[in-house]
Design a protein that fits this description.
Chain lengths: ~290, ~280
């Protein structure tokens, strides 16, 4: 009885994912035997040292890319192409919002052809309200600040009413204050829209602050090195939660996992490193490798 | 530079431009009135001649029969030729940009064909297609298609992968992705191609009308030269530059309508204020 209940609550099931990139000269293995499940309502962060693993994993989970080995299933159905009920927020909002469309058009974009015009209006209004951007419908994205643009991207994802929202380092290119605001906004809309979230970050603090559970990955070839429950209650508070001894101990646990996964990696960018500066170059490499 | 400085520059620049143009025409008028050369009529004479030749039919249409013979056929050829160039160029450019196999197969050949100057084909086209309107339209289309094609091709290839990923996540089909993401994303590049194509089209229009024609601006130009009607020659020359100017104005109008976001985006970036 108990088992049956648990099975029905599993939203995402990842079994034995492995992936290699092949170029003319070399063959680069990035993922190796990754398996985990995500239950409905969880907020799971994926952390790990920089390298191609995280972005590749996200692309595989979203159905944007077929893995060399293994399978993904969402709500019991095998993922082959982007499945219904999935939304994704990318790190670079400039590369996902369309400059020729106003905020309204950008948010309604995934709904055109799927739902009626009046429902599109309604959902866009609701999503923009949720991210605090009502009144900006007729602006173009490039007329807004970086943090606001990322909120538009989140509103677009919300308008799809996803069961699962994948976020690939969504707050990596905004300043610290904006980032804290966006983190709290994300926790609010998660509650409001009743979503399951899978969140990639290289920031240990952020992962502990946001998540109910953290998965840690190693350097390439990437394997799963840890699966940690975060025993913190909601709602969370930027100052209070971060002072909580549980936060501090969990943060230490996760950081140790990452250090053990890449002993030499910690020297180049420490766990308390600036949140985005040092990693930008590495991320570019990651991107390049992924594109190849 | 401050935004104030830019806006002042914007207001002053066109005025100065017009002032210089008026000065030049006055100089031309003065010089041609003094010189007795029959090859250079005064601008006033050219203006009067233009009015008499094309616009003196009186109310309600103004346009004379000569206008229908001299200008209308040229406008038709240019419009049809350019329309063909745009349709074929955009379609082929998208196909090349989206399907790598097609690009690999035909790109070298296209570069070879592009290297061929349009007028070179006129003698061949005369023999094969004859001296009708279709020959001239074909020459214009053939010469003007290349900038549209290659601009579309490179713009489509450069569509950021993030936008395509966003389309996939929104579960858009191939057709929807083409019309809702790829074409808008490539539209600025396509438009730049159309601009270049229009200039080439006008050159080829005249070139194609210089041989075996019975009407049109190019024909009028050679006819008046052979008849030693130098004022008429000047009428055709000025008419061509006016045609180019109007074509450009029309393009700018369409661009303003369709790509207004891009103009605003550029202004936004110039000011360097990306945020509210």
């Amino acid at each position: 009885m108990n088992e049956v209940l648990e099975v029905s609550n599993t939203l995402l099931e990842v079994t034995g994912i492995g992936h290699s990139y092949h170029t003319d000269r070399s063959h680069h293995r990035v993922l190796k035997g990754i398996s985990f499940t995500v239950e409905e309502g969880e907020f799971v962060s994926i952390v790990g040292p920089s390298g191609c693993g995280k972005t590749t994993l996200m692309r595989v989970l979203s159905g944007l890319m077929k893995p060399s080995d293994g399978a993904v299933s969402l709500a019991g159905r095998a993922v082959d192409g982007v499945p219904e009920g999935l939304a994704m927020v990318f790190q670079d909002y400039r590369a996902s919002l369309f400059p020729w469309q106003r905020v309204q058009g950008n948010v309604e974009f995934p709904l055109v052809g799927h739902v009626s015009r009046s429902e599109r209006r309604e959902r866009a209004a609701e999503s923009l309200h949720a991210v605090g951007l009502e009144g900006f419908e007729q602006r173009y994205p490039w007329q807004l600040s970086g943090g606001m643009q990322q909120r538009v991207a989140i509103a677009r994802a919300l308008a799809m009413r996803p069961k699962l929202m994948l976020m690939d380092e969504p707050f990596a290119s905004v300043d610290a204050q904006t980032r804290a605001d966006l983190e709290d906004l994300l926790l609010r809309v998660r509650e409001q829209f009743d979503m399951t979230i899978l969140f990639v970050t290289h920031d240990v603090d952020e992962s502990v602050y946001l998540s109910t559970r953290i998965l840690s990955l190693s350097k390439a070839p990437t394997v799963l090195t840890g699966d940690i429950e975060v025993p913190l209650t909601f709602p969370r508070d930027q100052i209070g939660t971060r002072e909580d001894p549980t936060f501090v101990s969990t943060r230490g646990e996760v950081a140790r996992l990452i250090r053990d996964a890449s002993p030499e990696g910690l020297k180049t960018h420490s766990m308390a490193a600036p949140r985005h500066t040092g990693d930008v170059g590495l991320n570019e490499n990651e991107e390049k490798l992924c594109v190849e | 530079m401050s935004s104030n400085g830019i806006s002042r520059m914007r207001r002053v620049k066109p005025l100065v431009g017009w002032f210089v143009a008026v000065l030049l025409i006055l100089g031309w008028q003065a010089w041609t009135s003094i010189s007795q050369s029959i090859y250079f009529p005064t601008p006033l004479d050219v203006l009067r001649g233009t009015y008499n030749r094309w616009f003196s039919a009186g109310l309600p249409i103004f346009l004379t029969h000569d206008f229908a013979v001299d200008v209308v056929p040229s406008l038709e050829r240019l419009a049809i030729g350019l329309a063909l160039a745009v349709i074929v160029g955009v379609a082929l450019g998208i196909a090349l940009g989206r399907v790598r196999v097609i690009a690999e197969l035909v790109e070298p050949m296209l570069h070879f064909m592009r290297a061929l100057p349009g007028p070179v084909l006129i003698p061949l086209a005369l023999v094969v297609v004859g001296s009708g309107t279709s020959m001239r339209v074909g020459i214009i289309a053939f010469g003007a298609v290349w900038p549209v094609l290659f601009n579309t091709y490179s713009a489509v290839k450069k569509v950021p992968s993030g936008w395509l990923a966003a389309a996939k996540v929104a579960r858009l089909g191939r057709t929807a992705t083409l019309f809702r993401v790829i074409v808008p994303a490539a539209s600025t590049g396509i438009f730049a191609g159309i601009r270049v194509a229009t200039g080439i089209g006008i050159i080829l229009l005249v070139a194609s009308e210089l041989v075996a024609a019975s009407n049109g601006i190019g024909f009028g130009l050679t006819q008046s030269q052979r008849a030693f009607q130098f004022e008429a020659m000047w009428i055709f020359i000025v008419a061509l530059s006016v045609l180019g100017y109007i074509a450009n104005l029309m393009l700018s109008g369409v661009e303003r309508l369709v790509l207004n976001w891009n103009r605003m985006l550029r202004l936004n970036n110039e000011r360097g204020t990306g945020s509210v």
